[in-house]
Amino acid sequence: MSLERINPAGLAPATGFSHAVTATGGRLVFLAGQTALDAEGNIVGRSLPGQFETALGNLLGALAAAGGTPADLARVTVYTTDVGAYRAHAAQLGRVWRRLAGREYPAMAVIGVVRLWDEQALVELDGIAVLP
């Protein structure tokens, strides 16, 4: 299995994401949306960065349980109730990503939503991974 990250020179610089990712061979893993829920099912963290860290940790935990690593992520979608806050915290969120998932970025999108399933949730992440 291999993932190739493609960032064409003719597009804006890819910072914290890849413009395209191709996957050859392997097994697909579809990762359900993860928020900042703890093991008891309670939202933890009041800030977007704090919730992002927990949600990403939950996503990576599900991926690890399926036998994958962060480098296997081909696509991640981020849903947030406040795109402005997400942009304002982009540098901090990038540091959280690099600490937990490294520098191999999947294709990504950030989508603003009115609310998430849990009213206290500020961010949710889902993804697709390709395992060898």
Please give a structural write-up.
The chain is an alpha+beta fold and 132 residues long. The protein is built from three helices and six strands, in the order βββαβααββ. A four-stranded mixed beta sheet has the order 3-6-4-5. α1 runs parallel beside α3. The radius of gyration is 14 Å and the shape is globular.
List the topology elements.
Blueprint: E1 2-6, E2 20-24, E3 27-34, H1 48-65, E4 73-80, H2 83-88, H3 90-101, E5 107-112, E6 123-131
Parallel strand pairs: 4-5
Antiparallel strand pairs: 1-2, 3-6, 4-6
Helix pairs in contact: 1-3
What's a concise summary of this model?
The chain is α+β, with helices and mostly antiparallel strands and 132 residues long.
Number of helices: 3
What kind of oligomer do you see? single chain
In whole angstroms, how far apart are the ends?
5 Å
Strand composition percent: 25-35%
Rg, Å, rounded: 14 Å
Shape from CA axes?
Answer: globular
* Rounded average pLDDT: 95
Physical arrangement of strands within the biggest beta sheet: 3-6-4-5
Question: SSE string, helix = H, strand = E?
Answer: EEEHEHHEE
**Main pleated sheet:** 4 strands, mixed
Structural category is alpha+beta
Q: How many β strands by DSSP?
A: 6
Helix content: 25-40%
Spans of at least 5 consecutive residues with low confidence: none
What are its keywords?
about 25% helix; alpha+beta; single chain; about 130 residues
